[in-house]
Fold each of these.
Amino acid sequence: MDRRAAKPIEVFGPSGRRIAVEARVSARARRMTLRIAPGGGGAVLTLPPGAPTRLAERFAQDRAGWLERHLDAGPARVPFADGAVLPLLGADLLLRHCPGERGARIAPGAAGGPPELRVGGEAAHFRRRVSDWLRERARAEVAPRARAHAASLGRRPARISVRDTTSRWGSCSSRGALSFSWRLVLAPEPVLDYVCAHEAAHLAEMNHSPAFWRLVAGLVGDWETPRRWLRRHGSALHRYG
């Protein structure tokens, strides 16, 4: 889909709260649509080409009350900070800032507590180091699974990359390049594995035909359960960070 960023918009809710609205121009859009951004930190306004800026701003402001209600009802954001708990392959992981240490590593937690990701260095770099560690862990989890699933189908990915995408968990280009969201590492392992199999199957079937789903089933068996999990809980993975 052809999407281009437009000028960001700010609106004010009934309470006076300032709400950031990301504006995107889509060649496929026939009308303006507004939705809550993944993770609940703001909103996304999709515009058809040529939509006047003033009209877009009025459209978003007229719906500021709706935005405020839905943002308040959504899950709270969980920043990468000392003491925060996030899921790693579906299991709790406690973030700990350890200034006297170097790098980032997983260590056993306190008795009865979850394991810890111990991050060294200055507090100002804590968030970035946690993010970097999670991306590297995602690559380590995704790449071998994607290659193995592709090999089972007699295929080989041209490239495998990990990004911070908001609209897709994975993708397969016409040239065979696979891309995945690093946030999959926050999901249960069967969910991550399903997405790897899904994109690997596109190397053989670039569609969602019955033949495609038979390939996915041959790779992971039950694909419907992890697919439902993503639909129900996937948006909550964007609240971390």
Note: Residues 126-152 form the longest helix (27 residues).
Amino acid sequence: MATAQTLNRFYPIVPDLDWLQRALPAGIRLVQLRLKDAAPAEIDRQVRQSLALCRAAGCTLVINDHWQAAIEAGADWVHLGQEDLARADVAALRRSGIRIGVSTHDEVELATALAIAPDYIALGPIYPTKLKLMSWAPQGLDKLGIWKARVTCPLIGIGGITPERAPGVLAAGADSVAVITDFVTHADPDARLREWVAWAGL
């Protein structure tokens, strides 16, 4: 199982290989590749290239959803939403030595995640987010404290987090903050990434 020290407290999420190449020079040490609506061959290509780039840069790469591609590429981490967790071959992932992070929103999902002994739990959205239409209301900081008391693995806060909000998210119980919209939609994404890296002390 991962520890809080395994995961950096700034956890950026990038939508593709191009964004990863843009983010790595900022000095990130942990990143999730969240590929959507890509053909299988393109998924495999981007996963393999992203893994090579991250390993060369000393950055931990987490593959979102595409667990088969992660196994085939020899990745170290995957992140699974609840629907993906239901479809994934967790035993195959474990045999491959891949660590698993899981998204949660309520008590039922938390119990489902904890049943596989995950390497981290993500809770969100903590704040309102513009990234996508969410069926879940903002969870709030108090719920982070509740989740923290329930888990023994690292806890990730996600959703609407900015550098101004991040200290409060950590103080409420999160070990790391996952961020995408704040820098992807920023007027100067590269500067914003550097700001996050400085905040994280990297």
Note: The beta strands are 10-14, 30-33, 60-64, 77-80, 99-104, 120-123, 155-158, 176-179.
Amino acid sequence: MKFIKKSEEPEIFQQWKSQANENWQPTWDVLRAKEKRQLHQSLLAEQGFICCYCQRQISIEDSHIEHLKPRTRYPDLALEYTNLLASCKGESEEPPPVPVHCGHHKKDWYDEDLLVSPLDENCEQLFTYTELGEIRPISDPQWQKSAETTIDQLGLDIDKLRAMRREAIEAILEGFEDLTESDKHQLIEGFKTTDNEGKYTEFCMVLVYILKQYL
């Protein structure tokens, strides 16, 4: 998981909501395509174009707007920008079946005490990874239950994501030990920042965690 620092909501979204009057109230169901697309793009940009939960690279075509606190349970937060994220698009359940993960796996689940939120500054420290692509909860008893539950509720350790993380890890480890200490640190720091297009590397914090084990 990668910490997400929320920015200001897009002006077009703010202006649309400001049109509320005694005869019309903005709701999620009447959010128009123009405002919704701009909102979606804004969420992607502030996340560096990676999924808010699994860190896969995403675009507007293969992601959806996720309500951290589900709008079915928290209708008053349906249009609250601080409650909105961009998550992986749901996979088709038609044959061949593909496991669903992240926002669509989470569905309407939310537990303030058990969900590790990507909006929490310490979220990156609550998970560990193996070179096989596995994600594990931190062993700290204060946080282990929350991290463990989050992994389960978001489907973060399914075979599909393990395989994708493993492939990314294997690719970056090739030749890593041949680098100078300075270059190793520079590479790791590079994964913590976005590129010239404002994008993070896919599974960036996974790679940071693994590479640090080789320092």
Note: The mean pLDDT is 94.
Amino acid sequence: QRLLETEAQFVTLAEQWEPGQLHRYAQTVRHAYDPEATVAEEARKHDLRHLGLASTLDGVVYLRGNGPAEAGAVIDTALTALAAKTAGDLRSRGQRYFDALETLCRAYLDAGQLPTSGGARPHITVLVDLTTLQGHPGSKMADLGYAGQISGEAARRLCCDADITRILTDGPSVLLDVGREQRTVTPTMRRALAARDKGCVFPRCGAAPGQCQAHHLIHWARGGTTSLDTMGLICPYHHRAVHEGRWTLHHNPDGSWTANPP
């Protein structure tokens, strides 16, 4: 009798509700009748979780995956918090979510809490010639390994705030010297930048200090210095706009910042 009453109720609701709303109610009813079946279904979905990354020949990385509702809620909550649209932000929703995922991964890598790999904390590696960093005509592209190659401008953006290892070679295969890794922006300097800039210095951005990278107004490979007077915090979106987008960023004598389009 109870099943017949439930069936009759579904027929009535189906005429009034959207399919998604009706499906959620059906799941609730199923759980009420057989909670163990719901637990088993959740376990099956958890076992099917998957995330894949594939790199194409033209330098695009594709992400594809699926997972249970609980994991999806965690991921969505974290990405939504970082994907908020700011003043002058022209990114689509999908672009903001992708950038938010990259920001989360960068923050976790920078925190140094991941298991070590080969005796060192995990980090991305960019192989780039000095002539490329200096922007000489005819210089080679930089190499990210699995993900492909990037332009010299992209390499300069990444090297604005990075650990640099000097490797000198004689030709393509004879190793002459491997220099000591040097931090271009010290933790103390980063704290000072955060205290001074309060976040991304690009006008009307509002990204928090933890979401920002340290930017050299004159790149160190071109003779710029690593000091508070010659650097500023900038979010990844506007960091790309300055390097690849050719915007110019100026630190004014009164402490304000001005950004000019190309």
Note: Residues 93-111 form the longest helix (19 residues).
